Amino acid sequence: MDLIERHFSSAQSPKEGEHAPHRHDVGQFILVRRGILYGHVERSNWVLKPGMAAWVPAGLVHWGSGSKGMELAALYLTTAESRHFSLPAGPLLSTPLMVALCERLMDQGWVQDHPQRRQTMTAMLIEEIAEAQPASLVLPLPMDARLQRLTNTLMAAPRTLGEWGRQVGASERTLMRLFLRDTGLSFHQWYDRFLLIEAVRNLDEGFGNARIAERLGFASADSFGHWFRRVTGGSPSTYLMEKPSPRPLGRENGPVPSPT
Q1: Quick one: DSSP state of residue 234?
Q2: What is the C-alpha to C-alpha distance for residues 193 and 185, in angstroms, rounded to an integer?
Q3: Fewest beta carbons less than 10 Å away: which of 122, 126, 191, 211?
Q4: pTM of the prediction?
């Protein structure tokens, strides 16, 4: 299973190009070369921009979609080939070596002329995948029914946690405790990730700061830009072109501004 496949998306929008939930009998490694990939599994959603990778273990139900012009490199690994992996399903930070190996192994002419070197380089790539670090553009989804009602309708009606608590029948303190239990994140950490994933989706669709601020509930384009730089370390205008970094999206970023 050591052949790199190249996949393209010609869909005009992520919704149009969405694949139905499915599983593979083998593990799937993905490297995004161009465009944006939106991935989903039962308990989380994730976003991959160019230069990011992902691992999907064998048998795991997943689905996803890509922006127009998205291009992927995919490597399928048997259970035996990935037996030493301890990776969770989801996005990974790629390394320069990982990217270079994928580029070489996608050159079908070179691969056919150098079978022994192909095997050596594939083995190196598998080791790079096994040692890869998780990326932060992952949104864990809760199991608690009250939290699911909250997260399923959050974008349609931004509110404070206290307001949500009154609607779903739980105190603000209870919701905070349940968020931490179900997702491993505080509500503010989870909301930062949620907004960032939605912001990336809007940037990929070509919206400017003012329109994104309006769609996500920020008071102004400046407010959105300030928040975006705080949680990512970069500006919205350059984020999709920047090399992915291990910057965490966690408590150190502080609470997100309340939508107004």
Answers
A1: S
A2: 10
A3: 211
A4: 0.74
